[in-house]
């Protein structure tokens, strides 16, 4: 059997006396959609923050399996990072946020170019931006941006200001921006929050296409159970920081422990 792309092993995350995640273990298979679900306060976003390098787990390991060797994300991140982690992006993990974080005063396509870090203080100083290699990289970045705009059904919006897009399109733009970094794993934090039924339907098609056509591995936190059941290959349920169920969507939906957690029965 293939090694999973992501392997979360016995992760505990404490904030002082609060234990947000306790001994959490699960894995994410390559090319699959895995959903992380659970009632409010279950520890889902904290887990995402550990996986994406915003927090360093108090205990345990998070392993991203690469083609050659395993990379322990925990050893790449030596301190909590806020506002995004270049180290985790470089390791091949991209994410979107519960609250949309776009550059609203920039155009849609500019949001995707900025995400590709084409211009850094370093290459401005060194003048690398005047070289043929840089111009080639620039063309590739533009091609990549338009490719993902197409995949997210946003081509016609390329030159609009990001802040002017309807909410559902802003959500898809966030996914396009994450995909422009060429991630091995994309983590989506409540992508359907605030969407109407037709926007949710379009989102589910986009996520399924990412996975089935592009072999993209997706980890998603979501409260919309209809969407979770439609798009997921595998569901992990957290409650009070611990994994209470893990398996195929139909298994999890019928698990008495999950039903009790959602009904608030202890
Ligand atoms: P929701 O579905 O409401 O977004 P969640 O499952 O994502 O919830 P978390 O946001 O991970 O849950 O929170 C899990 C627990 O950890 C909660 O009790 C929360 O108050 C606590 N917590 C999260 N972040 C911090 C922090 N930075 N400092 C202290 N406690 C925190």
Automatic annotation (TrEMBL):
Q: Provide the ABC transporter domain boundaries.
A: 6-265
Q: Which UniProt keywords apply?
A: Amino-acid transport, ATP-binding, Nucleotide-binding, Plasmid, Transport
* Database matches in CDD domains: ABC_Mj1267_LivG_branched
Recorded GO terms, molecular function? ATP binding; ATP hydrolysis activity; L-isoleucine transmembrane transporter activity; L-phenylalanine transmembrane transporter activity; L-valine transmembrane transporter activity
Its domain of life?
A: Bacteria
A GO CC annotation recorded here is: plasma membrane
Q: Which residues does UniProt call coiled coil? A: none
Q: Which BP terms in the Gene Ontology apply to this protein?
A: D-alanine transmembrane transport; L-alanine transport; L-isoleucine import across plasma membrane; L-valine import across plasma membrane
Keyword presence, Transport = yes
Q: Identify the SMART domains for this entry.
A: AAA
What single Pfam family name could you report for this chain, choosing any that match?
ABC_tran
What the record says about family reads: Belongs to the ABC transporter superfamily.
This protein's name: ATP-binding cassette domain-containing protein
Organism per entry: Shinella sumterensis
